[in-house]
Every structure is written in C-alpha cells, then in structure tokens.
Amino acid sequence: MRTFGYFLTVIWLAVCSNTQAQNQQVTGKVVNKADKGALPGVNVLIKGTTTGTATDANGNYQISVSSGAVLQFSMIGMTSQEVPVGNQTMINVELADDARALEEVVVVGYGTQRKIDVTGSVAQIKGEELVRQPVLSATQALQSKMSGVQIINSGAPGQAPTVRIRGTGTLLGGADPLYVVDGIITEDIRNINTSDITSVDVLKDASATAIYGVRAANGVVLITTKRGKTGAPTVSYDAYIGIRTPAYRVKMADSQLFAQYNNEAVRYDDASATLPFDPATATTNNTDWFKAITRTGFQQNHALSVSGGTEKTTYLFSAGYFTEKGILNGTDYNRLTLRLNNEYTLTPVFKLGHNLSLANDNSNLSSNSDAALPESNQTVYAAFTNAYKQAPLVPVRNSDGSYGYTPRNNVANPVAQLDYTNYKARGLRLQGSFYGNLTILKKITLLSNFGIETNTSRSYNYNPVYQVSANQRNLTSQLSTGRVNNTRWLWTNTAEYSNTFAERHTVKVLAGYVAERFQDNVLVAGRQDVPPQSNYFYLNTGSASSATNSETGSIQTRQSYIGRVNYNYSDRYLFTATARYDGSSKFPTNNRWGFFPSIGAGWVLSEEPFLRGKTPFDQLKARVSWGKTGNDRIDPSAFLYTIASGLDYPLGPNQTLQQGRTITNLIDPNLRWEVTTGTDIGLEFALANNRLTGEFAYYNKRTSDALFQRPIDAIFGDVDGAYLTNAASVRNRGFEFALNWRNNSTKGFQYNIGANVTINRNRLEDVQGGLPINEGGIGNGQYTTRTAVGQPVGSFWVWQTNGIFQTQEDVNNTSAKIEGTKPGDFRYVDQNGDGVIDDNDRIFVGSYQPKLYFGVNGGFTYRSFDFSTDWYANFGNKVYNGKKAQRFGNENIEASRADRWTSTNPSNTEPRASNAVPISSTYYVESGSFFRINNITLGYTLPKSVVSSLKVSRVRFYVTAQNALTIKAFSGYTPELPGSNPLNAGIELSTYPVTSAYLAGLNIGF
Q: Closest by alpha carbon to 979, among 879, 876, 871?
C-alpha cells in the first residue's frame, strides 16, 4: 500500500507541475449553432494531450493553456471543432449538429467499420452507459438497451445472466453467444470490471457473425476494453455502496390456515384418520421461513484507473474490487480485478501492445460455473423452495437449541440446511493478448494477435455429521473437492488492404488465419469421516477406505481461414462478403471442416442526388444480408464410444473367469455441427437534424442439423436409451424496432429518450422420425415440457383444467376423469373425446420464450443535475410454478389457498385441500409477462469553482435504485428464470429470486 501511495503521489505531482507550466487562462462559452442554446458537458481538450475540462450547465468553461496550444471542442452528436489559442483569452464556439450520426464507428469481426458502412445487424453500447447499472457483468447491464438481445438476470451473487440473441436456435448444442474480449475468445466475461469497458458490440445477423464461423450461430458479443491516450496522466476513481432486498415475497399461509388445510386434506380422504396437527396449539409458533433464511444484502464496488502516455507509449492500469452479500444467508461473492493495457509505437508504421487482466474471485454458498462442484449451488438454492413448503408452526429452533421439524412432512428445515452446508469456491483467471501491427505503404495493415486465457478454480463441499430429523440427517461426514484447470490459446493473423480509387470506389480486403487450442482438466474426489474444523478440510484427514475420485479432460483444436471484402461506391452503394473455412476436432474426421459464407448489401438512399435535400431524412439506409453460421458446442468426445470394464464372465469348458468389456453407448459416426442459415432486412434512418434516429429489421434464421437425443430400443444396450444425432431443425423469425431522440435546448437543459421492441417467433420445424422430447421434471414423477414439431422449443405440455367437480353425483356422471377423483378436484378436458384422461389429452400452452420484449431508456441533464432511467418489459411467455406443484403431503400453501373449494365454499378455481401429488396442468402454468423499472439514477456534479479548489477535475455524487418496481402476473418469487437448458426453461424450482438494489455512488476525476 505504501508503494501504491507513492505511485499516486508521483502522478499527482506530475499533473500539478504540468498545470503550473501553463500560464494563460482562456474562458468562453459553447452554444448550439442551430438555436444558440448553451451546451453543457462539451469536452474541451488541449490537442495532443488528455488535459482538459468540460462546459458547465450554462455552457461556460475555463482552462489554462499555453499560447501555442490548440483547443478541441467535442460532444457526442455534434461536429467537433479545433481552435488555435494564440493570444486569445476568450474563445466562444458554436457547434453544429452532426449530420452523420450513423457514421459512428462500431466494432465488427477482426476490425472496425463506420456504422453507415455496415451491411449487417450490429448494436453498440458505450461503456459510460454500462456503468450506470450496479452489476457484476456487463451483460447484466444490457437488459433493455438493445433490440433482439434478451437478458435473463438472476439475484444470485456471482451468477452470470442468460443471454439469448434473436431467440433460441438449438436444443442441446448450447444457446449462449460467443464472447470475444480484445480478440480473445472466451465463455464468460464475469472477470471483467465494467468500468474497464469502452464498448460492447453485439453482432446479430449472419452477415456480421459469419466471420466467426462455427462458433457464431447464437450471435457474438465483442468487448473492447479501454486504452491509454497520449497526454498527462489521468486518474479516476468510481465507487458505490448499498443494499439489496428481495424484489418480491410470496405470501404464505400462517400456522392456523396451514393446520386447518392439512387436517382437512387428511380427513377428506379418511374421515376417521387422526388429525396430523392440533388446532389448539397451531398458533404457538408462526414461523416466517422466508424471513428466517434471508437478510438484507450488501453490495459495494471500487474501481481505480490511471492512464496516459507519450507519442511512443500509452498505458492504462486499473484495479477493481467487487463484493456482494446475497439476500440468502451465507451466499457471498467477491472479485478482485487488475488490468494493464499498454501500446508501444516503435516506428510510425509499427506498433506492439498487450491487454492483460487478472481476476480472483471467491464464492461462498454461491454460484461459480467454473467450479468442479457447481451442483452444490442448486442444493443451497433449494432452501427457497423448502422455506416455501415448510410448516409455519415448526420453530426454527426448539427451546433446547435443536432445529425444529415436523414428522408430518419430508421438508427440510431450510435454516439447518444452510447452516450445515459448507460450500466454497475460488477461481483465478488470467487473460492476455499480445499484438503487433504493421502498416505497409499506408494501404496494407498486418496484424498478429496471440491471446491466452488460463483458469484455475478449486471448490469444496463439506457435509458434517448432523441429525435434524429422520429425513434430514447425515450420519457420516463427507468432504468433496474439485479442481478445474483449463487453458486456451488463440493465434490470429490478418492482413487488410484498404484503398480508394477515383475518389468514389473504396475497397477493403481482409484475409487471415486463426489457430486455437483448448485443454481442460477436471478432478473430483471425496472422503468420509473428515473432522468438522475447516483447517482439516483436506482429503488426507478422512478415511482412506472411503476414497472416491474421478478425472475428466479434453483437448480441442480448431483451424480457420477467414476472408472479407467490403466495397463502397460514393458512400451510396455498399457490399460485404465474408467467408470462413473452419475445422474442429470435436467431430469425426469426415465432418471436421465446414464453409460459412455470407453476403450483404446496403443502399444509402439519402446520398442519392435525386433524394438529397428533398426528403425529411438526414440519413436513410436500406440493407439486406444472407449467411450461414455454425454451432459446435457439444462434448468433444460425443462421437467416441465408451467402454465399460469389470464385466468378468466364466467362459469355456473349465468356466475360466475372463475379463469382460462392453460398449455402453451408441454413437452417430456422421455427427456434425449445427448450421444456421439467416436472412436479415433492415432500414436505418435519421430525422430532425439528426435528433431522431432509428432502425427497423426483419430476420429469419433456420437452424438445421440441430442435435437431438433420439430414443432407441433397449435391446441395443445404450445406457440412456438414446443416441446423439443431427435430427432436428429450429426456426426463429421476428422484427426489431429502435428509436432514439436526443435534444439540446436552452438554459442548460438536455434530454434523450429511446425505445426498442423485439417480436420473435420460435418453432421446432421438424424432427427425424417426428419424436418429441419430454423434459421439465420437478422431482415428483411429473414432467411439464415437451419439444415437438410445430411448437416452440421447451413448450409446456399439460392437461387443461375446466372447473372443479362440485358433487359426488357430478363425479359419477363423468367418465373422463383421473382415477380417484372426488368432489373438489379439477375437471380435465377430454381433448380427443375418447372418455379417458391420458397423455393424449395434454395440450401445449406456450413456452418460456417471450413473444415480445422491449426497453425504454431516457434521461436529462439540467445545470449540475443528471437523471437517467431504464425500463424493461417481457410479454407473451409462460412460467411453471414448480415449487407450488411439487407437493408430497402436509407442505405449506400460499395464503391465496384460503379460498379453496369446500362443501360450503363451491369454488370453481381453487381445488380442495389435498395431499395427493399434483398433476401437471394449466393451474400451475402462469403468465411470465412483467414490466420493470430497471434503473433510476439521480446525480449531482459539483460546480467547477468548487472542484478546482479541491485540485480535481470532476466530482459527481449519485444515488441509484435498481429493479425498484416490478409489475408481474406470476405469483411466485420471480418470472426471470435463468437456465442453460432450453428444453426445460421457465420452471421456478430452487431458484434464487431477482433482487432490488439501492445504492449511493461517487465519481472522481483527477
């Protein structure tokens, strides 16, 4: 810490000495050329340095410069302007609206392009927008910001959100997008501090993604981190701190209603049965189990960065610390990040650079998908379901200190469950890219980038000896440990030629070669009889005779040849063609190579002479594209046979014992990757002096050769009765709309508002043999989802309720009923009219995939105040209340069940009290639609006169409310249910609820 403090002191003295060397004060005002209104927040920089200031709420500025300096005035959406200082002491500037808003630069595969030149669908979010959300991962902050990008967040500390780009296009191949960080391909970006990000660019259609070939069927997310700039050192410090609370609580029955309900259920089936609960003592305890397992969460984040440079070297160093205590007792997560991005200009045409990051994270009872024992997390999160189901008349602890329980149900005491679970995981990830950039004849650029990522994690789960009840106990201590080590390197070499001919024809040609290798190793081991003290949590302290272990690993390699041609004629006619020839070791030799092409065309109508100045459009561009991408996200050994040993068998006249082995799985020798073919049609425009910008797009993409577990007869000897093959196709088609309005007015007021809408339709088009997949089991013998031709992937497939039987006569007169039906039970619709209720009467009632989702973003600045807000909504999807449906007998009920059917209360919506296992029906399928205010932020920036006396350039305070309001139809904890398996998504069971956060923050610039 002393060394670090000395480092900051040196930087501070350098800044101060630099300031003292400048001896000329320049003041002035910056206004909008169109309406002469003051422009607050205009950047005023000394050219060639990072020294500068910003205009205040009235457009005024003051800066100390030398007479030979040049001032640069810039602001997003306005044309930049440079003014030599000379002997001037007052410089007033008028900035015009930028008539070319679509010319902003976006990141595409292996390069950048002007937005106006892009023929594919690319969306970009700047880093300054991301940091408004107090989140761990940048993808969490994307919710509501982009059309076509669905973000499903979780409240669990450390857990990454589920990201779906233009729907779900696979069954088993993995539906997550590809992440590329500064040229490094990775599976996860939780190791990146959001404050270090310059921009996030999302490639959505095949024209944009085909350059990534076999990895790009689910879209590509490109992360660009910050770099230093030439000039004096600048230091920034950003921090926030606050609390997290449950966004919603389910109202459960109290002890009296609980006892009444369950006694009624028992007596209904057997009038002479002994009552399980004594009504006279039912109110002795009235435990709120949700409250017993939760707490007020806590979150904080600190980010410090130092950047600067000379003409030869630029640098950026940053450090970040994030910590969160979840609302579930004991669920904690923290992360420390370090980053060093340097670039060295050796000659005017040759540069070297590196982007290095190190992240160390620790989780306790919380999510860590990199750990070898991630299943322990779900055991912990089941505490929410147990709190929902446990009897309220059971105390958390008895008077003697033992944990409370009731022998009348099998529900665990959730407090004891958490107390007796010791799960910890620690991870260390290093990412680095090293590049060289050589420019030849000003037209050819050669780039070589070597990226490496290593990840090491250790996790353990310790179960001590305990006994809460006959159903919740552990008689022998058990320690399970897991270690994961994986390394990925990626070497990319590209050459790009760029030239303009006859001032109208611009051509860019890119060619390259990519090689990749990934190796991972997972070791899991366990022993019993390990002492309960944490300093003994090592395998050698346990019983050697109980030792278990297993190890898995794989090596995956890829080679790729890439190419792209961009042609631009007079900024009017655009053409893009890309191709990637990919080879992957994940598939049999005869199917290891694939070709992924795309073409795109654009027409900038607003540049046509016959339209220029004759339409209300400042810019108008139409685009169309077509292309193919792939998905190879399967087990790298999926095409290999597995052989079981130890099957000894007596053979021969002497019946000699012979060693036996057998093949345990059938494989498809022609297994190949999934291929997605997509078409995109779009229209981009700008109106009203570029204040109103928008985009409309239609897309249609079809995944063929989708991987599918095809059932086979048991006679073939396959252990799971199915084999993996390419046997299905999935289609997603939809529309995207986006509008953004930005306006600067007089008296220091500036505002903006934007909205985006996505409409998507998902459908399984065909399956080899027409066989459906049943999934979505909830642990009580019932399954809830089916993936079948003509339906969305993972659709809920249940019986339709049609009222409630009111009398025994009514039951007797109905043939189509479930065996054992009594008055008060549901009627189920006999869909085929055969007089029997069976699987043939199940119906599809929707899926977890929304039909429409949209976001609204807006804000304003007025003098020293700033305000921003984001809203998000999700419509047309369904969720299954799994915790409500998972009953075995004598569990708690929701308070709404007080209005259940009885002989004196003939309800037609709430069935009678029952301890029978519930049947999967429309009763448990609920609307997943919701509307949420994602973020509300109010900030105040100290006046320049105040911060100058503090020797800093900027001080801003702000308060933020995240997920402050959610309006939903679902009766459970949350309709947002992250999950990696598209076949059974949308079931609320052992789910960590989404939370609300209330924080205060500080931004300081030096």
A: 879
- Helical ranges in 114-231 per DSSP H: 127-130, 206-209
pLDDT in tens, 816-825: 999 999 999 9
| CA angle, 542 then 548 then 552, to 5° | 135
Q: What pLDDT, on the 0 to 100 scale, is given for residue 707?
A: 86
Least confident of 500-514, 584-598, 742-756, 816-830: 742-756
Report residue 548 as tokens. Answer: 């278990």
Contacts 24+ apart (CB under 8 A), 278-282: 281/393, 282/255, 282/256, 282/258, 282/393
Helix (H) or strand (E) holding 319, with range, is strand 313-325
Burial class for 548, CB neighbours closer than 10 Å (0-12, 13-18, 19+): exposed
Q: Which two tokens stand for residue 821?
A: 């039906």
Q: Confidence band (pLDDT; 50, 70, 90) for 718?
A: low
Decide: helix, strand or coil at residue 951: coil
CB 30 within 8 A of CB 55: yes
Q: What does the alpha-carbon distance between residue 915 and residue 169 come to, in Å, rounded to a whole number?
A: 40
| Per-residue pLDDT tens digits for 954-970 | 899 999 999 999 999 99
C-beta separation of 308 from 339 below 8 A: no
Q: Is residue 19's pLDDT more than 50?
A: no
Pairing of the two strands 178-181 and 220-225:
parallel
Q: Which two tokens stand for residue 364?
A: 């306790």
The residue count of the chain comes to: 1006
- 421 CB-side CA count, 13 A: 26
Would you say 231 and 51 are in contact if contact means Cβ atoms under 8 Å apart? yes
Write down the residue that tokens 């309960």 correspond to: 532
Cβ neighbour number for residue 285 with a 10 Å cutoff: 15
Stated pTM of the model: 0.87
For the chain, how many helices (H) and strands (E)? 10, 52
Give dist(CA 799, CA 782) in Å, integer.
12
User: Could you read off the pLDDT of 173-222 as tens digits, one per residue?
Assistant: 889 999 999 999 998 899 999 999 999 999 999 999 999 999 999 999 99
Do 590 and 670 touch, CB atoms closer than 8 A? Answer: yes
Q: Name the residue type at position 697.
A: A
Contact 890, 276 (CB under 8 A): yes
The answer to whether 134 and 242 have CB atoms below 8 angstroms apart is yes
Helix (H, G, I), strand (E, B) or coil at 894: strand
